[in-house]
Amino acid sequence: MDFELSQETKALKDLVRKLIEKHQMPLERKLLQGEAITAEDLAPGRKAAKDAGLWGLSLPKEYGGADLSTVDNVAVAEENARCLVPLAFGGRVPAFVRRLNDRQKEKYFHPLLRDEKSYAFAQTEPSGGSDPGGQIRTNAVRKGDRWVLNGSKIFISNVARADFFIVVAVTDLEKRQHGGITLFLVDRDAPGVRIGRAIPMIGARTTHELFFEDVELDDDAVVGRQGTGFASAQGLLSGARLNIGARALGVAERCVEMMIEHAKARVAFGELLASKQAVQASIVDSWVDVHQTRLVTYHAAWKQDRGLDTRVEAGLVKFLGSEMVGRVVDRALQLHGAAGAAFDSPLAHWYTDVRTMRIFEGPTDVQRYQVVARSLLK
Fold first, then answer.
1. What percent of the chain has pLDDT over 70?
2. CB burial string 7-36: b at 16+ within 10 A, e below
């Protein structure tokens, strides 16, 4: 791979950075002052993204999307993560949802594109989330011409806004991940669906429990073919892992910039911090961390654009990026001292925000030992 980004991708990064600086950074300052961010606050940025042709980044142009490559998507996510109040680019639809039949598209896909509906992806269960193939207990049993869904989910994001859920369920206990897991479209208000307790998380996130008790579904609730759900879900997670790497880059890069700016302005014991070897080492180590992670992340995106299997690379990006950004934010906060630990600094917010990157979309331990190491040693 030529690790020099194309002129088109560089221009895209520049455009997104300008949009973020104009529309989102003022909102970050508002957030850091303790004020709430409203839908009205977000509207100008969303309009600007649409006007710039950046709506539905991965969607084909036939659906009104920008049809960006994976490399370009990583570039956008990297720039977007530099701000505590990211820009919404709309039309975020998993690739497998595009394969719905015509009736399903009319009910779910097209409203998603028009930003009229929202969904939540429901996979993690109380029995565990790191081994979905072996641990999922939610099941769907065929009874006549209907499916009957029973089970529970936990730590599910976006439930508060979701109009429907994409539910991962076992349809063949013996096959499980080898053809026995299916995805189902389940309406929020379907009989037997119950939203459980809200679970506040670090990083200002709130997840929820979901319960399904004898939820009756017809064949139009099945996503794709029966038994193909595990592969579809894993494909979704690979994209999410690349996104985590891109977001980690954006946060870490801004942290390095803040470290440099602070070190060149702050005087301690009669000298600028920038003159002290320990500070220099901290900044250089952080810059190297960012640079190495960027190479791995963009290489994985480059491979995906060429239709190559990137499951191992996505796992590598996930654990390298999520651990890297934790180190860099920690160094940046340490350098800024009490000012960095105050919630009127983005560093204090990132300190908790980035910690969840090591857990969501597959813990780093699983990526390291179950994905990367297994691939190397098989």
1. 96
2. eebeebbebbeebbeebbeebbeebbeeee
Overall CATH class of domain 119-223: mainly beta
All residues at 6 or more sequence positions from 184 whose CB lies less than 8 Å from its CB, including other chains: 140, 147, 149, 166, 167, 169, 217, 221, 222, 223
Mean pLDDT of the chain: 90
For the segment(s) 231-377, the CATH number from 3.50.50.60, 1.20.140.10, 1.10.730.10, 3.30.428.10 is 1.20.140.10
| CATH code for the domain defined by 7-93 | 1.10.540.10
Q: What is the pLDDT of residues 10-68, one digit of tens each?
A: 999 999 999 999 999 999 999 999 999 998 999 999 999 999 999 888 888 888 888 89
- Reported pTM: 0.88
Phi, psi angles (nearest 5°) of residue 139: -135, 155
- For the annotated catalytic residues, the residue numbers are 361
The neighbouring-strand residues paired with 271 are 268
Provide the H-helix boundaries in 1-67: 7-19, 25-32, 39-51
User: What distance in Å separates the CA atoms of residue 94 and residue 108, rounded to the nearest whole number?
Assistant: 12
Entry field: residues in the chain: 378
Domain map (residue ranges) of the chain: 7-93, 119-223, 231-377
| The amino acid at 295 | L
CB atoms within 10 A of CB 116: 9
Q: Taking Cα atoms as reference points, which of 108, 105, 88 lies closest to residue 45? A: 88
Distance of CA 374 to the CA centre of its chain: 24
